[in-house]
Amino acid sequence: MIQIHGALDLVFWILAVGVFALSGWALVHAVKTPARAFAVTGKQSKKLWLFILGLAALFGFAAAVQYLSVLSIFTIASVIASGIYLADVRPAVREIGKGGGSQGPYGPW
């Protein structure tokens, strides 16, 4: 029975480290993105995303050091917030900095 609990603890710790890595990646991207890109794309402000992703990284870190449970509501909210940023906001704001002079209707030419 002890081996099962040890294996489950390892699995949940790996999940917690993954939550922290995901939220950290989203936070670093948000810090490096110019504030103008958020306004142009119609997404929430950069300050709000930095606040949300900062809290997500904090809760992800707390789960990784086993201060919070991986299944706590804060850790789950961290995954959801980071996922929304990476799936919706990141692709939209990333396109703002890629403007070039030789752009056609189907891409560069």
TrEMBL record:
Pfam families: DUF2516. It comes from the Bacteria. The chain crosses the membrane at residues 6-28, 48-65, 71-89. Keywords: Membrane, Transmembrane, Transmembrane helix. InterPro entries: DUF2516. This is DUF2516 domain-containing protein.
